[in-house]
TrEMBL record:
Residues annotated as domain EAL: 24-274
Organism of provenance: Sinorhizobium medicae (strain WSM419) (Ensifer medicae)
Full protein name: Diguanylate cyclase/phosphodiesterase
Length: 280
């Protein structure tokens, strides 16, 4: 009885699990191949706007993967995969190199790059960043590395050492998706970062009763008291943009202002923005 029930269970769940594991392994292989091939991965750039002047102040590099048969795969899917498959260093190096080359091409803009806690936990990470900046003649203060709270949880202290070395050199740091992790205001007081990026969930809660306005207001208060800059993520409407500007957010980012675009569209986008401002 038990045996047949067990077999039944296997029949229902077994192959499914099996398939999931195989799919994951296949995708890992495909990602490894993509890192070699070099034409499936591309870096897109989402402009970040000054809340006051509405000028573009920086670009955030966001990696894209066009899988040869599956089409576009979201970074929320393949970045974690790269982390567990030991591929995140190569992926991170690819994005950073692309971002440095873009920074050199657009000298008036700063550039932000997302960094996984695993990369930051590698002993030689800071040295690799220095060497890329030097190779592309990009001043260190034009680069901002976006980290998440997990990077600050690192027990071995390697992340912290890298952050300190990079900050001493002039590289900036932003805490991404702020408010979604363990961060408390107490922690915010001690953070060694230059900027807080308020997670889009707070921005999107503006229109709900008891929504995110009060939360954003207190984050802005504490952060500004510490001398940190604030970016609001996920700005999708003019109304949100207006509220965030009034709350004192320094920079705004979101589909309402601009979607992430390929590098080939940047010149046109920047030109159009300048034209829009000078004509209004
Ligand atoms: P993130 O760093 O918080 O990036 C913001 C994400 O929100 C991006 O998604 C962006 O396309 C999306 N977004 C921008 N404006 C809006 C908006 O108005 N509304 C909504 N709903 N979404 C908006 P994307 O590109 O899919 O990236 C997702 C996450 O993947 C990133 O979140 C980041 O954590 C990670 N990621 C992306 N590129 C890299 C990378 O090169 N390295 C690492 N380690 N992680 C990356
Ligand atoms: Mg980010
Ligand atoms: Mg974010
Ligand atoms: Mg995120």
């Amino acid at each position: 009885h038990a045996k047949s029930a067990g077999r039944n269970r296997y029949a229902v769940f077994g192959p499914h699990m099996d398939e999931l594991i195989r799919t994951k392994r296949d995708l890992e292989q495909d990602l490894r191949a993509a890192l070699h091939a070099g034409n499936q991965l591309e870096v897109f750039y989402q402009p970040v706007y000054s809340a006051q002047s509405r000028e573009i102040s920086s670009l955030e590099a966001l990696v894209r993967w066009r899988h040869p048969s599956k089409g576009a795969i979201a970074p929320d899917v393949f970045v974690p995969l790269a982390e567990t498959a030991g591929l995140i260093d190569r992926l991170g190096a690819f994005v950073l190199k692309e971002a440095c080359s873009t920074a050199r091409e657009f000298p008036s803009l700063d550039i932000a790059v997302n960094v996984s806690a695993i990369e930051l936990g590698q002993r030689h990470y800071a040295a690799q960043v220095f060497s890329l900046l030097r190779q592309f003649s990009v001043e260190p203060w034009r680069l901002e590395l976006e980290i998440t709270e997990t990077a600050l949880l690192d027990e071995a202290g390697v992340c912290e050492k890298n952050i300190t070395a990079l900050r001493d050199f002039g590289v900036k740091f932003a805490l991404d998706d702020f408010g979604t992790g363990f961060s408390s205001f107490g922690r915010l007081q001690r953070l060694e970062v230059d900027r807080i990026k308020i997670d889009r969930s707070f921005v999107h809660a503006f229109d709900r009763p008891g929504g995110g306005v009060a939360v954003v207001q207190s984050i802005v208060g504490v952060a500004h008291a510490k001398g940190l800059r604030i970016t609001a993520e996920g700005v999708e409407t003019e109304e949100q943009s207006e509220i965030l500007r009034n709350l004192g957010c320094d920079e705004l980012q979101g589909f309402h202002l601009s979607k992430p675009v390929p590098k080939s569209s940047l010149r046109q986008l920047l030109g159009a923005e300048t034209a829009k401002r000078t004509s209004s």
